[in-house]
Amino acid sequence: MKKERVGFALCGSFCTHAQVLGELERLCGEYETVQPIVSDICARTDTRFGAAEDLLSALERLTGHRVIHTVRDAEPIGPKGLLDILVIAPCTGNTLGKLAGGITDTAVTMAAKSHLRNQRPVVIAMASNDGLSGAARNIGELLVRKGYYFVPFGQDDPERKPCSLMADFSLIGETVQAALEGRQIQPILRTYRQIA
Fold first, then answer.
1. Residue-level pLDDT at 47
2. What is the model's pTM?
3. Among 33, 96, 151, 152, which is most buried by a count of CB atoms within 10 Å?
4. Count of other CB atoms within 10 angstroms of residue 36
5. What DSSP string runs through 109-135?
């Protein structure tokens, strides 16, 4: 088991949670410590994809750790040096905008801000229906910012959702390892067939 401590933060792209939980389970098999973190929306919103309580239970069962879901509980991540790397998966367009703008009003954005103060990597696995429209500026901002690494992404449904971008979640583990070494895996942009 690898010794690095991984934070794994989920945002509200509820349709991707099943995929992301599979990747979280893989990370739990590789790393001794995986700390779950969720946005307020994830912590309290039941959707057609599942109940919030079931998501929190699954995260705690997989990781063996209590879920961080408040700004207050996320703040000590940096001062106490609790993580070696933070993964945000799925990272919504809303969260991308907050990270780019320095807004820390959720457990996920506070975890990122607090963690980055230690100059440690943050991995972004995006899922955004407006990645090629409203969120594009924020993606560009984070791509050039030190400390951020992207799970390769592309258009997940170019015919029906031409502005939508989604990470290839199966590459989360590889991206985490590269980010711990200070490398961005390439190519960042993938074609539709590569991520479908």
1. 87
2. 0.95
3. 151
4. 25
5. HHHHHHHHTTT--EEEEEEETTTTTTT
